[in-house]
């Protein structure tokens, strides 16, 4: 699905990503972990077209997508969410989802004047789809709530819902669990697993909650100092001495030894 080949991203003399090479297999839920400053989010931004790499390539389904802008990658089914949710706070939850698909007839001024019936038909279809998404995510009771009134976890679910309004192939999740209570985190985890199993979504997720990563992800990739340090199952990662030294710490090592 996604192949990252020797990607570098420099900001002046700072090498945020320093020769990262990795593969995200079709149908996987891949975890990307590492200490703060390891280059994880910068790599996400390079893959998603927010930043151009200094060098290296990104391949999707055998095609070079290096440097393509986000809207073109969106059209190809590559989507990403953000650590801080980006909702339209004054619009309802349903309306936020209805905004996602591109090429809507109502976007053209001419159609707003002369194709009102077609616009109304499209909006009804989008509203139905949005309601199906909200039911899938178990937040349909919030459909008419202003998005700005949602909790942090509910906003993360809304971000996940946006990916369901289009034909997503691979979704990059940036700390989907950050600031989310355990109950909602379990709901988010359930939704990710269902999207993967039932709809064939491929996921790559940055996350610091190792229990959450362990529940969802195989494989797990560890980054440190801008490059890939290790890849394996969660148990292999926890037992990897290089990873323990670079990131996880002796506390987790001792925890794993007594488990």
TrEMBL record:
Signal peptide: none annotated. GO terms for molecular function: ATP binding; ATP hydrolysis activity. It comes from Rhodophyticola porphyridii. Keywords: ATP-binding, Nucleotide-binding, Transport. Pfam families: ABC_tran, BCA_ABC_TP_C. The lineage of its organism: Bacteria, Pseudomonadati, Pseudomonadota, Alphaproteobacteria, Rhodobacterales. One of its GO terms (cellular component) is plasma membrane. Coiled coil: none annotated. This is ABC transporter ATP-binding protein. InterPro entries: AAA+_ATPase, ABC_AA/LPS_Transport, ABC_transporter-like_ATP-bd, ABC_transporter-like_CS, BCA_ABC_TP_C, P-loop_NTPase. Residues 2-250 form the ABC transporter domain. SMART domains: AAA.
């Amino acid at each position: 699905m996604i192949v990252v080949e020797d990607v570098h991203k420099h900001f002046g003399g700072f090498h945020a990503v320093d020769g990262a090479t990795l593969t995200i297999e079709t149908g996987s839920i891949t975890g990307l972990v590492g200490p703060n400053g390891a280059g994880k989010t910068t790599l996400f931004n390079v893959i998603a077209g927010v930043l151009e790499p200094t060098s290296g390539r990104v391949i999707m389904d055998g095609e070079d997508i290096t440097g393509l802008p986000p809207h073109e990658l969106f059209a190809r089914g590559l989507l990403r969410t953000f650590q801080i949710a980006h909702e339209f706070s004054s619009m309802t939850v349903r309306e936020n989802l209805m905004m996602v698909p591109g090429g809507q007839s109502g976007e053209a001024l001419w159609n707003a004047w002369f194709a009102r019936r077609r616009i109304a038909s499209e909006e009804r279809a989008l509203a139905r789809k949005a309601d199906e998404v909200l039911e899938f995510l178990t937040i349909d009771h919030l459909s008419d709530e202003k998005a700005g009134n949602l909790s942090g976890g509910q906003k993360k679910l809304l971000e996940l819902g946006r990916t369901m309004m289009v034909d997503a192939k691979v979704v990059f999740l940036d700390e989907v669990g950050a600031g989310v209570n355990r109950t909602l985190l379990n709901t988010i985890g359930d939704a990710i697993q269902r999207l993967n199993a039932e709809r064939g979504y491929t996921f790559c997720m940055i996350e610091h909650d190792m229990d959450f990563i362990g529940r969802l992800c195989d494989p797990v990739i560890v980054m440190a100092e801008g490059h890939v340090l290790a890849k394996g199952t969660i148990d292999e990662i926890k037992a990897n001495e290089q990873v323990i030294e670079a990131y996880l710490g002796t506390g987790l090592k001792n925890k794993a030894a007594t488990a």
